[in-house]
Amino acid sequence: MVISAADMTHLKSHNLPGWKCIFWMQFLAITAWANLGLAQQKYPPHLLLPYYQGFALTIFTFGILGTIFGFFLSDLLPENGRFCLLVSLAADLPACLVAILPNGISSRCNRR
Questions:
Q1: CA nearest 6: which of 41, 58, 23?
Q2: Is the CB of residue 36 less than 8 Å from the CB of residue 4?
Q3: Second label for 111, Cα 20 to 30 Å away, from 22, 37, 96, 103?
């Protein structure tokens, strides 16, 4: 995944030092990698690295903030409130997948 992302962003053409390449690839998650694959079709090659940097840092920042808020704010919920929150999040996940996946999969599978 990291090697293909490095190829997608054309890291060699940006003449970055090795430590910067390693630094930016540390932010690679499956979400950023998949989105980079889609952005590769929309943007010219010289804009893919800045696109990846902004997208990956956004995901990383919100992930860290969500973890911190969840860790500290979970103590404010009563025990049954935590269970209700967990059940509601688990129930919404299949609904989100059903809403998102058919559009993405059907548009890709029907290409010929």
A1: 23
A2: no
A3: 96
Domain boundaries, the chain: 1-76, 78-112
Q: Match 């893919």 to its residue by tokens.
A: 48
**Global confidence as pTM:** 0.59
Instruction: Tell me the H-state helices in the chain.
Output: 2-8, 18-25, 30-42, 45-73, 79-109
Mapped onto helix, strand or coil, the DSSP state of residue 26 is coil
Phi then psi for 46, rounded to 5 degrees? -70, -15
End-to-end CA distance of the chain: 26
Report in angstroms the alpha-carbon separations of 58 from 1, 28, 61, 77, 104: 19, 12, 5, 28, 22
Nearest partner of 38 among 7, 8, 6, judged by Cα: 8
